[in-house]
Specification:
3 strands; 3-stranded mixed β-sheet; alpha+beta; 2 helices; 69 residues; disordered N terminus
């Protein structure tokens, strides 16, 4: 889950990370593009799917970048 960072539970939420927020946000020519980074077999969490729907409803774009190696 969002609070789990390998062996230190709560580390990411302690740093202010919020579950579901994409890993990268690119602002270009007045538009926002959101990118979630996943392993080749990674899937979006329920929180990430909720955020993706909100991003789409706002007219922004969200993509998922996967490792193909």
């Amino acid at each position: 889950m969002a609070a789990f960072a390998r062996t230190a539970p709560g580390l990411r939420t302690g740093r202010g990370c919020i579950a579901g927020v994409p890993d990268m946000i690119v602002l270009w020519q007045g538009r926002a593009f959101f990118i979630a980074v996943k392993a080749s077999d990674g899937a979006l969490s329920p929180a990430q799917k909720d955020v993706a729907m909100s991003v789409a409803l706002c007219g922004c774009r969200l993509g998922v970048a996967r490792d193909t190696a």
